[in-house]
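Researcher: I'd like a structural prediction for the single chain below. Treat it as a standalone chain; there are no partners to consider.
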Amino acid sequence: MDLPFLITIILNTNRREDTLAVLASLEQNTYENHRVIILDNASTDGSVQTIQSAFPKVQIVKLKKNLGYAGNNNVGIKAALAQGAEWIFVLNEDTIVTEDCLAQLVRAGQSDPHIGIVGPMVYHHNEPNLIQSAGGKMGRYWQVWHLAQNEEDQGQFS
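Model: Treating it as a single chain, here is the predicted structure.
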């Protein structure tokens, strides 16, 4: 089976060190048909230059206007779609991914044609056995809940 083309988009606003760390973790990822787009929101901490130097294959889009979290990510989603992305992974800059994260997400998404969106298990950075989110639920009127928020991971979620 061919691997779908996946683009990860990451919004950065003066979070150079965090963004470098997430890029380093993505560089170790085993998923092969993958690119990264950094959306830079007018950073003044040297992010753009440092990222370009450390990760020359990463595309950087300098945002012209701050459209907020969703609006800024929509700029990245449009850029990814224009480049032929079949899958888009919206990732926060303060995240570290495991080396098989992308492969697991794609595998899960392809396992059932009714699946339209997937997301990884998220742990607290300083408490790696404490779940931040094991997914979510959306209510009738757009209420949103995290599953297992602040629960200890005892293997209760696959």
